[in-house]
Amino acid sequence: MQELQQDQRMTERSRPVDAVRSAPTSKRGWLTLAIFLSCLFIYLQVFVLPSTPRVATGDQAIYLNNGARMLAGEMIYRDYDHFTLPGTDMTYMALFRLFGVRAWIPQAMLIVLGTSLVWLIVVVSMKIMPLTSSLLAGLLFVTLPFSSCLDASHHWYSTLGTTAALALLMEKRSLARLIGAGILVGLATFYTQSAALCAVGFAVFLWWEHRVEKSPRALLLEKELALLASFLVTLTACLAYFVWKVGLRRLFYSTVVFVVKYFPADWFNNWRVYMTGRPQVHNWTTWPDLLAFALIHLLIPLIYVLIFVRYALRSSPSVDQPWRRLMLINLTGLFLFLSIASAPAYSRLYPVSPPAVVLLVWFLHSAARFGHESKAEQLLLRGLWAMTIVLAIARPAITQTRWNESLELPTGRTAFAGYPVLYDKCRWASERTRPGDYFLDDPQMCFALRLRDTSRVPFFRPTDYTRPEQVQDAIQALARLHVRFVGWYANLDDEVVDPAGDHLAPLRAYLRKNYHLARSFSNGDQIWELNN
Questions:
Q1: Quick one: pLDDT at residue 315?
Q2: Was domain 406-530 assigned CATH 3.40.50?
Q3: If both were cysteines, with which of 53, 188, 212, 378 could 195 make a disulfide (CB 3.0 to 4.6 Å apart)?
Q4: 89 half-sphere exposure, CB direction, 13 A CA radius
Q5: 312-318 long-range contacts, Cβ below 8 Å, gap at least 24?
Q6: Domain ranges of the chain
Q7: What is the tens place of the pLDDT at every residue in 254-312?
Q8: How far is Cα 338 from Cα 332, in angstroms, rounded to an integer?
Q9: Residue 52 parent element (H or E)
Q10: Which residues, 6 or more positions from 36, have their beta carbon under 8 angstroms from its beta carbon?
Q11: Distance of CA 389 to CAs 21, 136, 346, 384, Å?
């Protein structure tokens, strides 16, 4: 590392003055170009040309539907249940209030999230490696993990906050910057409560840096207090309104007790989900996702272990500034991984991957600079560049040329590129419902068709994840509101593993008595209709 710094200083001295002065301008120009290309790249995946948004699928549909419910006057934890903190619901509620409940909003937010993260990743990377490698880190992230999880749920909003906090602390750890980082992590936690572990990671880094610098203990305490106090004050301020409206006990039950006791009841919410959900090899349109799946599962958490090993084997016993920055990135990534380690689904691993992607590129780049055998690392770097360029072309092409049909829906014209079953469901339901009609158990359709969800939960499960009182509440709502249509997923009957944990029997019996099967779709999903 010392040799690298000497080379850089000699290079700076040998440059003409005008070249040195123009360097920041050149960096800004390349960064601006990377952000623009990222914006265009994401747009071509979330919109079908010229301007039709793709249908919102995945977990984001839950938060979109919750945001619409809040816009209609409902309150999270009081009128409907969810296990995350209210940040995402509030964000969509605010956007709906500004622009109306429109299908383009989640796709526009994916563009904002993706380009913002590219910018932050490049900014972080430029503190430890040259511009070219920094751009590779940002573009590799947006073409692989981000594009394989185009789901504007709470995870990406939380990642934006934690990555911004990391970028703020890269240069130095002054009190002002620590307060800013605490605020950003507090905001990230308002979206995903487990992001609070990032504040713990920063606190551990401050302790490590104090040990390295042998600074006064009073200074360490002052820094830790600035970080943690600003974090707690921010989170408290964000939650104060909801504590006032629903009570601390109810909020604590929904976001802590439920998460600990009942959230892991489903296999996809515990450790068994690791390495599941692999993209289909025989379907060529999912090959880019297969690359992302392989890369991120190989990378996390292995890269953090490798950085610790590299640090232990460094040639000089002194700890220079680049290693401090590397350790900051490494601890941030490690604690972000720990925040999702209890249920490491790919949809949770991808959002916590920015530090890992940065460290991967640095690891390959640094091998050549340290004078080690570097042919393999150089080939890997060139391979990453080639893969990034190919994916930047292939992913939008796949989206724009795959099967697609569009519908005029209450939320606006919507493209169903790649989702034929959901197209059939929405077309069938749109011909038989009007905005404001009651519907049960399908947040995607409720949002897209502006239907009123009558359940306290976004979906039912034949496990302890769905509580008996939630089932009884749904039955009472069906009887009280005379709900005409009920959505029923195929796996509600097929995935009963533990009968003791399946609380849906009363709801099944009520449907058989008062409803009839109106339509069954190719994937096994059903819609039941009220008799008479």
A1: 74
A2: yes
A3: 188
A4: 26
A5: 314/1, 315/1, 316/1, 316/2
A6: 2-54+103-399, 406-530
A7: 999 999 999 999 999 999 999 999 998 888 888 999 999 999 999 999 999 999 999 99
A8: 10
A9: strand 52-53
A10: none
A11: 30, 10, 23, 9
- Which residues share a beta bridge with 47? 53
Burial status of residue 406 (CB atoms within 10 A of its CB: 0-12, 13-18, 19 or more): middle
Decide: helix, strand or coil at residue 330.
helix
In angstroms, rounded to a whole number, what is the distance separating the alpha carbons of residues 260 and 264?
A: 7
Average pLDDT, the chain: 92
Half-sphere exposure of 136 (CA within 13 A, CB side): 21
Is 515 in a helix, a strand, or coil?
strand
Q: Are strands 438-440 and 412-415 parallel, antiparallel or unpaired?
A: unpaired
Inter-residue contact 245 to 231 (CB < 8 Å): no
Tokens standing for residue 501: 């944990």
CB-based contacts of 175, cutoff 8 Å, min separation 6: 222, 223, 226
- Nearest CA among 457, 64, 444 for reference residue 258: 457
Q: Do the beta carbons of residue 169 and residue 193 sit within 8 Å?
A: no
Q: Which amino acid is at 174?
A: S
In sequence order, which residues have a C-beta less than 8 Å from that of residue 223 and are 6 or more positions away?
173, 175, 178, 206
The pairing of strands 406-409 and 526-530 is: unpaired
Question: Is 5's pLDDT higher than 50?
Answer: no
What distance in Å separates the CA atoms of residue 93 and residue 182, rounded to the nearest whole number? 25
Q: What is the pLDDT of residues 343-393, one digit of tens each?
A: 999 999 999 999 999 999 999 988 755 545 567 778 888 999 999 999 999
> What is residue 441's predicted lDDT score, i.e. its pLDDT?
85
Secondary structure of residue 406 in the 3-state scheme: strand
Q: By C-alpha distance, which of 158, 160, 251, 223 is closest to 197?
A: 158
CB contact at 8 A, 229 and 185: no
179 vs 436: CA distance, rounded Å? 45
3-state secondary structure 361-390: HHHHHHHHHCCCCCHHHHHHHHHHHHHHHH
Omega prior to 50 cis, within 30 of 0: yes
Beta strands 452-453; 515-520: pairing state: unpaired
Rounded Cα distance between 362 and 357, Å, is 9
At 505-526, the pLDDT tens digits run: 999 999 999 999 999 999 999 9
DSSP string, 258-316: HHHHTGGGSGGGSGGGTT-SPPPTT-GGGHHHHHHHHHHHHHTTHHHHHHHHHHHT-SS
